[in-house]
## 1
Amino acid sequence: MTAAFTSCSKNNDIEQISKGQEAEASFKANFEKRYGQIDPQNDWGFGKTASVRTRTANPNGNQWYASNQLNYVEPAPIGDAELEKVLTVFNQKGAESYESLIDWSTFFVQQVYKGVAVHPAKDGLNSYIGSNQMNWLFADDGTHTMNDHINNFNAGDNKDYNGIMLMEKSSTKAFGYNCSSDNGRLFYNFRMEEIDGNYYVGFDFEAAGQNLNEQVERDYIYNDWIVKIVPARPNITYEARIICEDLGATDDFDFNDVVFDVKIDKNKNKTYIKLLAAGGTIPLYIGDTDHEVHDLFGVDTGVMVNTYNTGEKAPVEFELNRAYENYNAIPVMINLDEATALGEGNLTVLKAEMGAAPQKILVDTDYVWCGERLQIETVYPNFIQYVSSHNYSRWW
């Protein structure tokens, strides 16, 4: 099976296809020579189906974060070093208006800082601690009509920091607050900044009541109230692990050329991938050509990652905007000719056909993949029995 791409040269297509077919034939012959006759009913674990969960609604999405209620990863606490960096930015005078840097609908709002600045009223007699008058935070879609109240979030009585609220089906295009000293008037005096890859919103206090003692001019220092906006990332429970041979060396059967965990969510039309290891040294792609495994780990193509005697990298998680019908349908592709650009020629798709030499195998997420150049039957002797009888499904 090959994944075809537009080509301006038929010769390139023929050459690439022949390389893939040649590698597959050599892999098949060497596998059968090593392990013997294959059970014609062996589906290499891919008979396991993705679990289907009923879609659930969160009737109170605007609520304090609770890990036992919500299937999202909890934002990390705000530390002293982070707070210092944020204040360094927001303590400086800013512009009259700012635009949002992000457009999210599901996110956390996390308390960072309750301001202490005192603002004089226009009568020259009264003054206000601005944050004490800002008692109603809201998110808006930029129209200044949505005003989506963020429950329990008041600068005056909220926690000094780390109070966390979840927002679902909301917007991050604009933010504002209600001024209690101005009969609940809404103000959109916000400033959004990206700091170390995170997003923060600071507010500048203003009051515009009828009397001079109720009027406070802006100072354009957005430190009267600061919150952090954190994307609500799903807390993924991966369902299966896929281990692959990339056909680069057709007599090496360690099945660690790429190892990744997978979850298919048909409700959200997503496939979630957690890349664990890359023991191969040729270009290899999961899902599409935007996800080359060495690129994802941040290494050159010839560098092996996380195969025990090789370089170590943290796992990489990403999602594909499609819910595949089953685990076997997730494309795992190789480019056997690095000199051929991806827009030319064909990529070879790794296969797991019933009763044929497997180029990929599905296992449970507790499977420990082999070290480099350790043949799979050396680490897991029952693998030989599994080849000839699919009843040895728990061979590791």
## 2
Amino acid sequence: MVFSSIGGRQAIFGRCLLRSGHRSRLACSFVIKAQDVSGPNFTRRRALQGLAVVSALSATQMSTAQQSGASSQEATRRRYTLRKPPGKSRYEIAEGEQLNVASAGAQAFLRAGSGAFVSDKLSLFRNRPQKPIQLYEFEGCPFCRKVREACSILDIDVEFFPCPKDGPTWRAKARQMNGKEQFPFMIDPNAGRQMLESDAIISYLWSTYGDGEVPIQFGLGPLSTLSAAAGLLPRAGRGTNYRKSKLPKEPLEVWGYEASPFCKLTREVLVELEIPHIYHTVARNSPRRQAMEDKWGTFQVPYLEDPNTNLALFETPDINKYLEDTYGA
């Protein structure tokens, strides 16, 4: 990657190499031109945001290239059928859902919007996880909430194994692996690490996949946990207790971010039904938002893809009804 200045204008040249074993091939080359360095519209951040899109695409290509086996090949070939086009506005609230959205938004308000934006300190050249971080947790847990916020800010994907109270599947598996029912429980398959305690997990994520400096909202001690817990009260325990369900053969895939009340409502159902899912975090300023716009012509979350039925859905009420009808018992 080369940074140079030509005629008073700054340009960024680069080539992304996709490596496989001892071979490498050119995955993409690019030139990003910015305005005059002395001009009012030029910012280093704007140039890096353009570069971030290329980096995200390159990381996706590299991860795909490293996958093997029939299952990954099938996933690459799979095409999803969109059940219904998304609404005209990404912030439109369905009729009768106003109270649910307002109560779900209380936690984001009390947490001052933590998890709504990708960190502007996130270096493009830091190590990025090739496989999703695995989390055993549940929606109604304030300690788990803090870790989910951290993942949104760091713009990393998570494979969730929901552990609602009395859940027969993932809670028992977590207990088998670490000897206790304590959440969140994190596994990083990229480093072979397992970890309990939300503060320890957050510190690990920032030192491994961030700039090493944990944001202030996670360093306020009990106050951080209390603000996360207070936001749970309006939801009256939703996302905490198990409801009988049928497990899918493959994990579902969900696009969203932690500070969105619409995403929280869908996460509650996923947790109560103990449905494993890969969560693609797309907080504001995430370069991965563009991929959804390119695919469907809009960005809107939550967005769900179910590899078990090849269906794709937008809109919280539609997604939740689909989950209840398909996996509720």
## 3
Amino acid sequence: MNNTDSPERGGKSSQDNTEEKDSAAVKAFDHSKTTKKPRPPKPSNAVTIAVSSRTLFNMVNERKVFEEDGLESYVAFQLEHEDQPLTPGVSFPFVKEEPRIDILINNAGVYQCPYTKSEDGFEMQFAVNHLGHFLLTNLLLDVLKRSAPSRIIVVSSKLYKHGEINFDDLNSEQHYDKAFAYARSKLANLLFTLELSQRLENTGVTVNALTPGIVRTNLGRHVHIPLLVKPLFNLASLAFFKSPEEGAQTSVYLACSDDVDGSQGKCFANCSEEHLLAKATDQEVAKKLWDISEVMVGITN
């Protein structure tokens, strides 16, 4: 398991601010996917940002960004979703350390990797992109409810349109197509959002999804691009892909904007509500996926 036992903390603690109530934002965020983070205006009240990183190197880089932005309180965790066992009580040990969480952004991801399995034996894209977020969110639900009004944001992809939920082969053992597996995991994100929204009625906690578009990150590190084509691809990405800052705008919008107060179970793109295909709004499939996901990660009610 590639994670540390204790988080790296920096800056002023919440106890140092006696006049304003602290809030905590937790991002299940794959930092290897961005080179520079969006920098929204500094909030007027004290905020603690908690971020997970794959490596200690990324944690150090994030610390520099936070300090440059003048962020007074932050928590950085080393957490490799690909190697983390999906087991309540073992996964995400930091969840017990935060007394208040106002915003949870589920944004960790892996894209079109070769067929591999997680430590628990699940197909990697389904494990990282869906099951990891499913478990983390469920582990944080109690504190999110105590912190209400609070928000959950799930980052999906327009590629969900090419995915299908095959309950007979969620582990892709019969057939593995890396593009289809990614699309399926992104469809699972939307179905998870749909079912969770039903379960959060009258709790003060909202959940919404988003599709960020094509962003210039190394999420596609598993995609082979011929050496001779790479210069042209890089030029095209500069011209047509979003920058990390642009790609993060809808996440920031859903986390911070008053425009989405009370919005529940919807999907957004470019800071506007997005129409979804019927496959992403099928409540029966969403409920079945939830039930199976509970069994896969070992959640019992």
## 4
Amino acid sequence: MINSLANEYAKEDNIVAYRTGKPISKAGLYYELKEAEKEIEGGDYLTIEDFAKESEKWD
């Protein structure tokens, strides 16, 4: 039984999360995380201060 559980957990197509009702697989989540890391390393992000300034413009 433990072997079966381990095999299921290791599958890349297992659903690990949902975004607005859309399932995200383990492989898909890993891809999204790697893309986010690239954006952060490239400076493509908002700081808390940037967000505060931006939110002041909201009605």
